[in-house]
Amino acid sequence: MAASLPFSEKTCIEVPLGRHKLKILALDRILASKIAANRPKDALTIPVLRDALAATQSLKPNPN
User: Fold this and answer.
1) Residue ranges in the chain modelled with pLDDT below 70
2) 3-state secondary structure the chain
3) Which of 23, 25, 26, 47 shows a CA-CA span of 20 to 30 A to 17?
C-alpha cells in the first residue's frame, strides 16, 4: 500500500484532464520528496527531475 504524502493547496497545481481538474504536487515538491525519501529506486529519477525543473524555470517570464 502506498503511503499518502502530506500536501497543501500551496504546493499543488491544477492540471485539466478532460472535464476534470486534477491537483498534483508541483515539480519542485516531487523532487524534494524523492531526495528526502533517499530510496535507491528514486536515484535515477532525481537528475531527470532536476533537469525538468531547470527547463521549466527557464521558460518562466522574467518579471523585470
Assistant:
1) 1-9, 62-64
2) CCCCCCCCHHHEEEEEECCEEEEEECHHHHHHHHHHHCCHHHCCHHHHHHHHHHHHHHHCCCCC
3) 47
pLDDT of residue 56: 87
AA identity, residue 29: R
- Please, are residues 26 and 11 in contact by the beta-carbon 8 Å criterion? yes
Q: How many domains does the chain have?
A: 1
Among 31, 30, 26, smallest CA distance to 60 is for: 26
Does residue 2 lie in a domain region? no
What's the distance, CA 8 to chain centroid?
13
- Whether 23 is covered by a domain: the verdict is yes
Whole-structure pTM value: 0.68
Domain that holds residue 54: 12-59
